[in-house]
Design goal:
The protein contains 15 helices and 20 strands. With 508 residues, it is α/β, with parallel strands linked by helices. Strand 12, helix 9 and strand 13 form a beta-alpha-beta unit. Bound molecules: iron/sulfur cluster.
């Protein structure tokens, strides 16, 4: 097994940086159907450019490199303990090289282990099979989309859809509801794996396993194949669109499986994955651990680019330039739909920083600042920090804190993805601030817009992703989706798409 560790390292790096061809194809289709001049179309152009940049730079497609989950099949008598040890070593090495973000946090102390290792991380499932080779499949599923997983216990009553019964129509309602409730927070367009039946825990496991199927395969069960097709068609008519901006590309894949259940239980479990749908696999020689074959991709074929040369996100000249510290007057003049270009200092702060700021003074002056909800992947070389990946994280997690933080520290903008709730919207109006939406997962694209790191605060206390980084932004594009006049694009799209669900006739 002299090559096993290296093979695992290569699998991790390729999975983090190079989307598989079936996902590229699905995203190409999304690019064709989303209207280019809309906000959703602009977001997709950034995503397309980002996917291409990740391969070119061998950088993480998204800064949230997720929970590494390995599904491993081994021949009888293969030493699984050696494999486990070497996979852990490969994970730590990939983290050190900046291909994975340190993502393993002690749930009690809040301490980040720094190397993606710790109780429960990574997830490894071993199974024996009759073949002579070893098969390893890996999925990297980030927290934003993981938080949008959902489990229904039917019969139940769903917003806009009425009663969902224990039948195919009821299942369809649950799955459409799952796509609707995710809105842009799971970085739409997404793909879903669904388990019908099982128990609660088994449902989540089997739903996630469906994400290992290729997006273009056909379910061997004709009834489920039909249902998958119907869900794909209907989900893409709801109008969630890329990043929840409203549009025609909401879902790039739907994979269903059925498992037996207890007579009293009927769960429909949905695993939601984002457009940054990172999964790959390898077949290994059981003696040496060397890669014999890649699954999902053919490395001898050139990677198909999403964007043709010269295409991608284009400036129109109508963008509004913002340079912090921002004045109240400038911010109050902004309206939902405005595209802004940020230049100058940009401060990051996410979950742990928000909690810290609630109880302490800020380590830096935030008056007039833009607080970016982002947990970047950073590399330090010769004492200098370099930004390796830096897209936005889901902002709604900060909803319990944000209004107080805006009031206490005089922020003029918060920026993330997926939008925020009513309390923050009221604070934006009262104190004169806006919510800026960056494009979720576009970590390479945005890393290019952050050429310099000025300073970092709370690094020791909070770890790399949660620390407060002060970047220099250069032409960093974002969209105003909540303004100081009480308008929210997110509320608007949620209402519109809810009405669409009702119109579809799947409601009672
Ligand atoms: S693309 Fe969005 S949901 Fe997916 S891992 Fe990245 S930030 Fe999370």
């Amino acid at each position: 097994m002299q090559f096993f560790r290296e093979s695992m390292l290569e699998l991790i790096i390729q999975t983090s940086t190079n989307l598989p061809p079936d996902v590229r194809q699905a995203m190409k289709k999304a690019l064709e159907i989303e209207k280019p001049q809309t906000q959703a179309g602009q977001a997709l152009a950034i995503i397309g450019e980002n996917i291409d940049m990740a391969v070119d730079n061998e950088g993480p497609i998204c800064q949230d490199t997720g929970m590494p989950t390995f599904e491993i099949k081994t021949p009888v008598a293969a030493n699984q303990m050696v494999m486990r040890k070497q996979i852990l070593e490969a994970i730590a090495e990939a983290t050190k090289r900046g291909k994975l973000r340190p993502n393993s946090v002690d749930s009690i102390s809040g301490k980040n282990s720094g190397n993606n290792l710790g109780p429960g991380t990574p997830i490894l499932h071993f199974e024996q099979w009759e073949e002579a080779d070893i098969e390893v499949r890996l999925i990297l599923k980030g927290g934003g989309c993981e938080n949008k997983n959902i489990q229904y216990s039917v019969p139940c009553t769903l917003d806009h859809l009425g009663r969902a019964d224990r039948d195919l129509e009821g299942i369809k309602k649950c799955v459409l509801h799952a796509v609707w409730q995710a809105q842009g927070q799971g970085c739409a367009p997404g793909a879903i794996g669904v388990c019908i039946g099982s128990d609660r825990a088994g449902g989540y496991h089997l739903a996630k396993l469906q994400l290992f199927r290729t997006l273009d395969d056909v379910n061997p069960d004709p009834a489920l194949a039909q249902l998958e097709q119907e869900i794909m068609e209907q989900a893409n008519k709801i109008g969630v669109g890329t990043m929840g901006f409203g549009g025609d590309a909401s879902l790039i894949g739907c994979k269903l499986a059925a498992a037996n259940r207890l007579p009293a239980s009927y769960f429909v479990t949905v695993a939601y994955d984002c457009w940054a749908f990172r999964r790959l696999g390898v077949i290994l020689d059981a003696e040496s651990g060397a890669i014999k074959k890649w699954l999902y991709r053919d490395p001898s074929r050139p990677v198909e680019r999403l964007m043709a040369a010269g295409t991608g996100f284009k400036l129109t000249g109508r963008e509004i330039r913002l340079e912090p510290p921002l004045s109240e007057e400038k911010v109050r003049a902004l309206k939902v739909g405005d595209v802004v270009l940020l230049n100058g200092p940009l401060v990051t702060g996410r979950d742990a920083a928000h909690s810290y700021l609630l109880h302490h003074d800020s380590p830096l002056d935030l008056n007039g600042a833009i607080l970016y909800h982002c947990g970047p992947v950073m590399l330090q070389q010769n004492g200098v920090w370099r930004t390796n990946a830096a897209g936005p994280t889901t902002s709604i997690r900060e909803e319990p804190y944000e209004a107080d933080i805006i009031r206490r520290f005089g922020l003029r903008a918060v920026m993330g993805k997926g939008g925020m709730g009513k309390k923050t919207l009221a604070a934006l109006q009262e104190f004169g601030a806006v919510y800026l939406h960056a494009i979720g997962g576009a970590a390479q694209f945005y890393a290019r817009c952050l050429p310099k790191v000025h300073k970092v605060f709370l690094l020791e206390e909070l770890g790399v992703p949660e620390a407060m980084w002060v970047f220099e932004a250069r032409d960093f594009p974002a969209i105003v989706t909540m303004d100081a006049h009480g308008n929210s694009l997110h509320e608007e799209v949620a209402t519109k798409t809810g009405a669409e669900l009702e119109k579809m006739g799947v409601g009672d």
